[in-house]
# Entry
Amino acid sequence: MTASEREPEISGLPPSYPSAALAGLDATEVRTAWIDFYDTQYHRVVRFVMHNGACLQEAQDAVQEAFTESWAMMDSQPDRWLAVTSKEAWIRAVALRRYRRPPGPRIRPRLAEGAAIPDLPHLGPGPDELTTQTQTVLEALRSLDEQARAVMAFYLDDFPTATIADTLDITEQRVRDVKKKARAALKTALAGYLSNGGRQSR
Amino acid sequence: MNLDENSYADGMPDSDLDRLLAAANENLLAHIKAAADATPTLTALISRATPKALTDSDGNIIAIGRDTDRTPAVLAIGIRSNVRRLTSYLNRALIFTNNLNPTLACALDLAHDIDLGLARGADRADNLDLALGLARGVGRAADFARIAEYALDRTLEIDRARARDLARVRGLDYVRVRDRARIHERIRHHGLVHDLVCDLVRIRVLVRDRTRAHDLDRDLDLDLKLDLARHVKLARDLVRYLNLALDRARDLGRDLGTHQVDASDADLSDADIHDLHVLDGVIWTLGTTWPPELAQWVRSESREIRPGVYQVGRGNDPERLALESA
# Structure
């Protein structure tokens, strides 16, 4: 079993939540904090999963499943939920796992390398639509291998190397190596786009 | 107009890659916020046992402007942002307040059933089941009310910022007065929801404690049932108030959408814009300074309308044209 297939690790209880105090937790406060967490993270986690190769619909499905899992944990085992030290990294790891291994016997069909992203809107002037540049960057990210995509997705969400290493269960040096290699590959993939005046070459 | 043409025969510099990734990151987030509404999932999680289907709401799009030393163009863009946020949060408050009605009505029915069961000498276990159901129902209603309160909190902050921006742009007393009145109206709604949350939490604790103590041999307090009945009415009133506030926010949004924002030669570098919709139709020149992370997007999404003068986005958008011709 690889690290990405496992349940994300839950670190020991942080000092602010000593186990003795857990019995006295106010469920209302925990739930309110969870709702705040959901509000701030939902769209960003969707983006994270898209950086890992998902289309918008797949990303939304995976993120919904991840938040459902976290809600269930918060509701039934609030002490376990509170003990998760980096909830932002945890929810991304769960969403990524859900995207890669959807529940049930159904195996999500994988897209061929370099395939067009299926739900990209037509290019147009609307500011909510993806620019050619963004589509090109997403396709370049898709050309990376699975681990490199995950590392880059965490970096794009401003996670520190130590948290990425902890979440993906690899060493910090390995994270740095993967990042360096991924950036070199992205530069090659995107140089053609830029030297072509911002137009896709294919 | 797109990116500057460059040659990368010697390899792309790190700064160019970072710039590309950052711009794509922002654009993708804006796209997701516009296309993926987070509210239905949240509602579904909270109301798992509530079969009522939910309507959709506007996207939850965020843009906050600072209001010190800003140019009129920055202020106008800030007001547009705030109106979009206001509409979005009011929508959310409305959705969750709408959920309160059936949940509270269901809780009230359960309270009546408990009384009937007690009067008929029904089995204590049956009454406990009903009471547990009542506690769960009230708890769920409290969750709905709390999220509505959270959304209204945000509308209050946005309203204050919008009133300041409007006053600065137009400098008219009546604007300040009108907006102050609107703020006060929303504070009043907010107060109602806050009272509702407190009451529901109190009722939940009361029912839970009595259930734990198996203290259901006497009628539930008349006050409790009266409270629930009052809250059903209160939730109905709130829906009406929120619909009015939402209509006003939409009117203002439409009104602002038809006004041209001219940012020619303006310094917009400190504008904190996360919702790219607000730049729709903005006119600018090469003398306009954009926030670095948006400059590339603006250039790629603009067209030249006169020599040296550009316009962002939906110049030919049918919705916009319809609004302008209305």
The helical segments of chain B are 14-35, 39-46, 72-119, 124-170, 173-212, 222-257, 292-300, 318-325. DSSP finds eight helices and three strands in chain B. The beta strands of chain B are 283-285, 302-306, 309-312. The CA atoms of residues 142 and 201 of chain B lie 6 Å apart.
